[in-house]
What we know:
Layout: H1 8-18, E1 21-22, E2 36-40, E3 47-51, H2 52-57, H3 63-82, H4 91-105, H5 114-128, H6 137-151, H7 160-170, E4 174-177, E5 183-186, H8 190-197, E6 216-219, E7 225-228, E8 232-234, E9 239-245, H9 246-251, H10 256-265, E10 269-275, E11 281-285
Amino acid sequence: MPIKRFTKDFLYQVCNEYNITLLRQYEDNELGAQKFIDFICIKCNKNTSKRFEFILKYNPTCHDCSCLEKGNKAKNTMLLKYGVKNISQLDEIKNKKKETTLKNYGVEHNSQCQEIKDKKIKTCLKNNGVEHPQQSKETRNKSKKTCLLNFGVEHPTQNQELMEKVLKNCYKPKIFIFPSENKIKCQGYEPFALEELIKNTDENDIITGCKNVPIIWYNDDTCKKHRHYVDIFIPSQNKCIEVKSTWTIQNKSGNIFEKQNAAKDLGYKYEIWVYDNKGNKVDLIE
């Protein structure tokens, strides 16, 4: 008769070795290589379950932590071998994909192919009754629900940290250096306003960045709620400063005055500083 390896004593030995906390007690007659063991993940402390043999073969972690660990290991291997985290970042692979798509569809990327575009629209119409997923009310509500669950807001750009990332990736940032040599990232015509402010305002009283400025919500002309991130805030004066170009003001784009009114309703002073492309302040709207 073969000796049974996956016994209660062996399980407790493994638990001691890997510092595993079991969620219940086990007896020899209910243990085996393919039997599931209930325990607490050693990485995230969540309750989980895994086959006895897999606890030995892999780490005693939950599914999510195991996948994360595998992903990180794969990235490190790719970095070591090829200098990139993902194989799709290799120029050789990129060129090969383009060649294959050119050969099959006559374009470099499948999204440029009209046949594929039409197929996507047809599939979406069949499944959702609309040409694009975001045109579906059900899809939009699901996106809002997921975003609320993950970030506490209905839209990613209403979250401070995510908005910082969006701004960082969407626009080429400019570096502004204060007299103290403290450096901050800014955009557009903001450096013109900062240059003016440091002449008569303590730099510690000049607040910028999505995480630091006041929380201001406003409704657009369709009554949809949005988060506004003002460019500059001066705490000692309770004053918000929004920096705009002459073009933006003339075209009244971006719900400029709706944002200003929302800030004023919250008790803030709110000034819109308008500059031309030479850095001349041509207007100040209070």
